[in-house]
Specification:
Protein name: Kinase-like protein
GO molecular function, one term: protein serine/threonine kinase activity
CATH architecture of the largest domain: Orthogonal Bundle
Number of domains: 2
Number of helices: 8
Helix content: 25-40%
Pfam families: PK_Tyr_Ser-Thr
Number of strands: 8
Organism: Rhizopogon vinicolor AM-OR11-026
Strand content: 5-15%
Keywords: Kinase, Transferase
Radius of gyration: 19 Å
């Protein structure tokens, strides 16, 4: 994560004890590229009823590198403190962290009842254009807030866009991929099977020895463009490919993520493809994207 700025660090990082948390199922409710998400009850002991929360726990398969794990613990705590102080309608709020879900601190946030955008789109296949544009605007708005705070998301996919019971979209898991990649633990990699469809091409480049490829704001914009075009067209990037190795092959072979785009307004198609430009400097900044989406919504 880039050095954050313009954040008013007034909210302390809450440590939630194990005694206040109860898993609602015996297995994770969702498993992603880096970890598992558990649906839990959070009881504070007050008169308020237990809250339903989501706990994101990072999976660790290599426990032998204790020094690297210790560093990752410190980094996660630092970034959790940043996250706890972010306040935006389209950025998922962090309630705190807990240490009872593995060797690394786990993130505790609200459980958003409509789940991920990826799953939502599977069951909502006939959304009106206005709704698709507004969803695109909400994602861009959350990304604009992060970028203005000096934060690069680094893993923007439909699985990291969550939807609450009022159909409001929130960005989640920003910065986590970079923390884990920087840890030096081979268990983690910023490029994983769950995000390769939406990953900017420069993120697949081979770094110089001793260096690593870092996520950037333009890389976030590329990922956003993929999500926007997925919303508008109803097709994932590289939709005809189901095997991750085939997707990697297509990417290294120069295949475009969207080959046949049908049923999409020409202006919307052109703008989303600007976000997907192979030339980083040709991609719009997210502030411009927000204004474009607002203007398009006024036309509806």
């Amino acid at each position: 994560m880039a050095q954050p700025r313009n954040i008013d660090f007034k909210t302390p990082l809450k440590e939630i004890p194990e005694a206040q948390l109860r898993r609602l199922h015996n297995s994770p409710d969702h498993s992603g590229g880096f970890g598992d998400v558990w649906k839990c009850n959070w009881s504070t002991g007050s008169r308020n009823p237990p809250a339903i929360v989501a706990i994101k726990a990072v999976r660790v398969t290599d426990m032998s590198q204790t020094a690297l794990l210790d560093k990752t613990v410190r980094d996660i705590r630092r970034e959790a403190y940043v996250w706890a102080n972010l306040k935006d309608d389209h950025v998922l709020s962090l309630h705190g962290i807990t240490t009872c879900f593995g060797v690394l601190p786990a993130f505790v946030s609200s459980w958003l009842t409509n789940g991920s955008l990826e799953n939502y789109l599977r069951s909502h296949t006939s959304l009106p254009t206005f709704r698709k544009l507004d969803m695109s605007r909400q994602i861009a708005s959350g990304l604009k807030y992060l970028h203005e705070k000096g934060i690069v998301h680094g893993d923007l996919t439909p699985n990291n866009v969550l939807i609450d019971g009022n159909d409001k979209l929130c960005l989640a898991d920003f910065g986590l991929s970079m923390i884990l990649a920087e840890s030096g633990n081979p268990t983690f990699n910023s490029c994983h099977a769950g995000n390769v469809r939406w990953l900017a091409p420069e993120m697949l480049s081979v770094p110089q020895p001793g260096e690593m490829t870092r996520p950037t704001k333009p890389a976030d914009v590329y990922s956003y463009g993929c999500i926007m075009l997925q919303l508008l067209s109803g097709q994932q990037p590289y939709a005809i490919l189901t095997n991750v190795f085939h997707i990697f092959g297509a990417r290294f072979g120069g295949t475009e993520p969207f080959v046949h785009i049908v049923g999409v307004d020409d202006g919307h198609r052109r703008y989303s493809l600007r976000c997907l430009s192979a030339h980083v400097s040709s991609r719009p900044e997210v502030q411009e994207i927000v204004e474009f989406m607002k203007a398009e919504l006024r036309k509806c």
